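Is this the right way to post structure tokens for a design question? Let me know if I should format differently. Anyway, here goes:
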């Protein structure tokens, strides 16, 4: 039987699935929150954020009415802040339509901001038991090895082929279990780095790559373009125990979040005091100079940091600047690592 591996996979999952908080519910909202958080983020890191988020925003109406600063602060440390912005936009759209729950169909889910084919498939299959695939990187890797497929797994064409294939084999009575089983297999057995754990794989007798000893040749990927590097000078300026900063523009990288003051390129040491004076500030302690680096998906920031306590020369801060409240203002990791008391 061509697809006899399907029941073997789902049986393996029922016996080996990790106990994760979002797997203890069929609530579409909670599954949505978990799936968005899990994008680009490790499972272990998500657990605490998920529970805290659900406690503060337990449903669509509470998320739709969330204060932006509070919402972003709650998300701080997860990165990729556009994810939570899109979640609020989706919640607002649902609330504006007079409803309080996510759509119960794939196309309706796909039409919401921030929900792509994978997330729509995950919610539809797990929460609503609809027989639609949920294809993420783990699933693509499993299928590439299973079929010893030389296609580029990052290509849209391979994803379409994967979705078509999975639609033909997904069990209509347990689509959510099937989708989660494939993802779990890729996350815990058919690993992305190093040798896959084929001895514990329920599909090893059906896997073409395993039969031919080519597991580590697959999946094939086009080489990644090298990240560009940007040099910056960042100022960690402390006034009365709080760091100074301002809000970033509403568009572009880290849109709408707060940041420490910075300048493009590395400024020479002797330019620091004129910089302070030009902003109505005076050093009130020892000046520390050190380096930090932050890696984004397509870019690296190399940062020279000037850190010092300051006093005001005038009676107010520079226009647009404010004292950053650590309990209110969300400071992205790229800037948070520049603080002198951050573990580097």
């Amino acid at each position: 039987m061509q697809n006899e591996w399907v029941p073997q996979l789902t049986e393996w999952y029922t016996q080996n699935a990790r106990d994760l908080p979002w797997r203890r519910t069929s609530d579409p909202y909670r599954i949505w929150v978990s799936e968005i958080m899990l994008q680009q983020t490790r499972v272990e890191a998500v657990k605490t954020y998920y529970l805290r988020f659900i406690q503060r925003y337990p449903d669509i109406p509470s998320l739709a009415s969330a204060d932006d600063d509070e919402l972003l602060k709650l998300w701080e440390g997860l990165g990729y802040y556009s994810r939570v912005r899109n979640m609020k936009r989706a919640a607002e759209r649902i609330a504006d339509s007079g409803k309080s729950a996510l759509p119960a169909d794939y196309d309706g889910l796909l039409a919401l901001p921030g929900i792509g084919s994978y997330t729509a498939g995950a919610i539809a299959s797990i929460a609503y038991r609809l027989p639609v695939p949920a294809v993420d990187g783990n699933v693509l890797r499993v299928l590439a090895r299973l079929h010893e497929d030389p296609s580029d797994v990052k290509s849209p064409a391979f994803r379409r082929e994967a979705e078509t294939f999975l639609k033909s084999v997904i069990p209509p009575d347990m689509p959510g279990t099937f989708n989660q089983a494939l993802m779990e297999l890729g996350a815990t057995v058919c690993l992305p780095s190093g040798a896959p754990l084929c001895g514990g794989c329920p599909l090893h007798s059906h896997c073409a790559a395993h039969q031919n000893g080519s597991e580590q040749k697959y999946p094939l990927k086009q080489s990644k373009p090298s990240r560009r590097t940007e040099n910056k000078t960042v100022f960690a300026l402390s006034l009365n125990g709080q760091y100074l900063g301002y809000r970033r523009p509403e568009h572009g990288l880290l849109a709408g979040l707060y940041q420490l003051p910075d300048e493009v390129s590395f400024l020479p040491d002797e330019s620091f005091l004129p910089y302070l004076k030009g902003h109505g500030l005076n050093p009130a302690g020892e000046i520390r100079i050190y380096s930090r680096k932050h890696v984004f998906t397509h870019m690296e920031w190399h940062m020279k940091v000037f850190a010092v306590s300051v006093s005001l020369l005038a009676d107010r801060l520079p226009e647009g600047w404010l004292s950053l409240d650590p309990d209110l203002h969300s400071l992205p990791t790229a800037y948070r690592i520049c603080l002198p008391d951050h573990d580097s």
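Format looks fine. Someone answered above. Worth noting: Residues 5-217 form a domain with the Endonuclease III; domain 1 fold (CATH 1.10.340.30). Residues 13 and 181 are 5 Å apart (CA to CA).
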